[in-house]
Specification:
Strands 3-4-7 form a 3-stranded antiparallel beta sheet. By secondary structure, the protein is mainly alpha-helical. The chain contains 20 helices and 9 strands. The chain is globular, with a radius of gyration of 26 Å. 46% of the residues lie in helices and 8% in strands. The longest helix is centred in the C-terminal third of the chain and has 22 residues. α6 packs across α7 and α16 packs antiparallel against α20. It binds one RNA strand through α4, β6, α6 and α11.
RNA sequence: GGCGUUAUGGUGUAACUGGUUAACACGUCGCCCUCUCAAGGCGAAGAGUCCGGGUUCGAGCCCCGGUAACGCUACCA
């Protein structure tokens, strides 16, 4: 079967739909950039929608950080939770009544069903399938549950999820779904490879798949431009559009940004937080320019000049036809060069102003000053104690970070544990202290050893202003990156010694 | 394992509807400039286009078959 394509006359409406689960991600900026350009070039609308349906991973401060980061890059949206618009609300947690309504629709027309298994039962099923070398998939046990049974379960208040009934079924005998990816052509999936996806979780929140399709339709989205990782999910989405009887948007799947080793870009191997880039002193122009280099899109470039362009120039000259599908490596080396180019191009006044707003801001310095006031005898010593706030290459030697009574291996393992704790923690003194101490107790590391190791990693020294206060001022993104870079460097060191 | 996607120097990209020794940028190395380090200038090395077939006078571009990498395979997005 082939599905019809949205008529090209419809006014273009695109969107990005980040999840507020942590720091704003460089991948969000990348997809945001492409969407922004696409909309601007066609006089379309660019929508920002917050996909906060995952309660477990929700981070309260994340949404504002996403707004700030995108604004920092100069990407502005026409509709969104903060600016409103005719298709709101733009926060999925405020639309749950809508999803419920549409799920009922599917339940009624026989394209979805309730499934009453517990997570444990599903896990057991999965284990059995994996053991038998079968593809792990829902077995459809509750697909055709008798109505009496469903009513009985419902009456006893048994929790359930709603699943999509992937054809073939009485209302739809098709065995495969094809859709057009605008960058790749037709892609086909056999239904035997499409799982009966959960559409609504037992907590009443929709999954991405349901919320996404419902919102895209209700918000009049004409072009879904998203990352390649969604290709495998697209048949589910197409099936949903079909179940609702809705017209399909165009699908564009952009290549995935990669680490140096070609895996999907990840915080373990690359700074991915936009906050990190801002706080480390990258200019938004450079970041945008660099992102624009990823995956092509700009016309043939054969000179040093052609590789440097502004957001406005991208809107002018970017062409989706030029997009390359190989996953581009997000290589900091080139970004740094580009950033240097932009820095050098600044007037001395602008450069100084940038320094003052980004690195030497009053806000930042006034937080640092109290940390060292009682620790210095002349103002001239300010730099001695605070240099780690302003350096990029802090890397303690083994004699600095390794506790006397610990082996290298257990120390690095503990540092990795610290990283895990820090990643999950709210970035306040009140939250960090107990979290770290708890870890120390669990692993039998004294408070002194515990904090000293982290101090060494963050400050590069065994002597510093109060650690936790310093980390709070230094910021989560950069602190975490410092720990990750430390672990990474130690790992490489160990490998070269072998 | 299954399904899907992708494949040009170390990295990002270029190469008109197949047409000369595969181009540019980053990085690397060398030289110049210079009190140092950058920046800047000049130059060099580095791919024969994942592999194997085929079509063609001619293939990075077309066809077939492999391989590898990556993604998905959650009541995460």
């Amino acid at each position: 079967m082939t599905n019809s394509i949205t008529s090209s006359e419809a006014p273009v409406r695109v969107r990005i739909a980040p999840s507020p689960t942590g720091d704003p991600h460089v991948g969000t900026a990348y997809i945001g950039l492409i969407n922004y350009i696409y909309a601007k070039q066609r006089n379309g609308k660019f929508v920002l929608r917050i996909e906060d349906t995952d309660r477990a991973r929700f981070v309260a401060t994340s949404e504002q950080m996403i707004f700030d980061a995108l604004h920092w890059l100069g990407l502005t949206w026409d509709e969104g939770p903060d600016v409103g618009g005719p298709y709101g609300p733009y926060r999925q947690s405020e639309r749950t009544h809508i999803y419920r309504e549409y799920v009922d629709l599917l339940l009624k027309n026989g394209t979805a069903y309730r499934s009453f298994e517990t997570p444990e039962e599903l896990e057991a099923l999965r284990q059995r399938q994996v053991a038998a070398k079968l593809p792990p998939r829902y077995d459809g046990a509750h697909r055709e549950l008798p109505q009496s049974q469903v009513d009985a379960y419902l009456a006893e208040g048994r929790p359930y999820v709603v699943r999509m009934k992937v054809p073939p079924h009485p209302g739809d005998q098709t065995t495969s779904t094809s859709f057009r990816d605008e960058l790749r052509g037709e892609i086909t999936f056999e239904h035997s490879n499409v799982d009966d996806q959960v559409l609504m979780k037992s907590d009443g929140f929709p999954t991405y798949h349901l919320a996404n399709v419902v919102d895209d339709h209700l918000m009049g989205i004409t072009d879904v431009i998203r990352a390649e990782e969604w290709i495998s999910s697209t048949p589910k989405h197409v099936l949903l559009y079909k179940a609702f009887g809705w017209e399909l948007p165009r699908f564009w799947h952009m290549p995935l940004l990669r680490n140096l080793d070609k895996s999907k870009i990840s915080k373990r191997k690359n700074p991915v937080s936009l906050v990190y880039y801002r706080e480390s002193g990258f200019l938004p122009e450079a970041v945008i320019n660099f992102l624009g280099l990823m995956g092509g899109g700009m016309p043939e470039s054969t000179g040093p000049v052609a590789e440097k362009f502004s957001l406005a120039e991208m809107v002018e000259r970017f062409d989706v036809k030029n997009i390359r599908l190989g996953g581009p490596v997000f290589d900091l080396t080139k970004l740094k060069w580009l950033n240097g180019e932009y820095l050098r191009a600044l007037s001395p006044e602008a450069f100084y102003a940038s320094l003052r707003t980004n690195i030497l801001s009053d806000a930042y310095l006034s937080q640092i000053a109290p940390l060292i006031q009682s620790r210095i005898e002349t103002l001239g010593q300010f730099g001695d104690l605070t240099i780690f706030f302003f350096r990029d290459d802090v890397m303690p030697s083994q004699e600095v970070f390794l506790p006397k009574k610990r082996t290298l291996e257990e120390t690095l393992n503990f540092a990795a544990d610290q990283l895990t704790v820090l990643e999950a923690a709210d970035w306040t003194h009140e939250a960090l202290e107990p979290a770290l101490k708890k870890l120390g107790e669990e692993k039998s590391w004294s408070v002194k050893e515990n904090f000293m190791l982290l101090r060494a990693i963050i400050t590069g020294s065994t002597m510093s202003p109060p650690l936790l206060e310093s980390m709070v001022v230094f910021g989560k993104a950069r602190s975490l990156d410092r720990v990750r870079r430390f672990l990474d460097a130690q790992k490489k060191l160990a490998n070269t010694k072998k």
